[in-house]
Amino acid sequence: MEITEITISIRDEDKLKAFVNVTFDDCFVVRGMKVIKGASGYFVSMPSRKMSDGAYRDIAHPINNQFRAHIEREIMEEYKRILESEGLEVEDDVLKTIATISA
């Protein structure tokens, strides 16, 4: 499965840094992913829904860690590219996250 498009909408909130939509094979899109800055660095959150018990559950997510890492790496690389193209600061934690995913 090939990622054919990533669209990112930058946000500068406390934890939420971007909304992300990813298109696969020019025929399937997953909307509502997020780039989040957590206590231990950046991560990509899959689209989720709040359940009746108050817990959040992913609506769509990768089945295996290899594909999850592929998606996260591509999203974080595009996030970095957009920050740079808009003249915004790329925090060290963004670079560390990319390096960790790529390892």
Concise account of the structure shown:
This protein is an alpha+beta fold and 103 residues long. The chain contains two helices and six strands, in the order ββββββαα. It has a single domain, classed as Stage V sporulation protein G (Arylsulfatase, C-terminal domain, 2-Layer Sandwich), CATH 3.30.1120.40.
Provide a descriptive summary of the structure in words.
This protein is an alpha+beta fold. Helix content is 31%, strand content 38%. It has 2 helices and 6 strands, in the order ββββββαα. Helix 1 packs antiparallel against helix 2. The mean pLDDT is 95.
Short key terms for the protein model shown above:
6 strands, two-stranded antiparallel sheet, alpha+beta, single chain, 103 residues, 38% strand, four-stranded antiparallel beta sheet, globular, Arylsulfatase, C-terminal domain
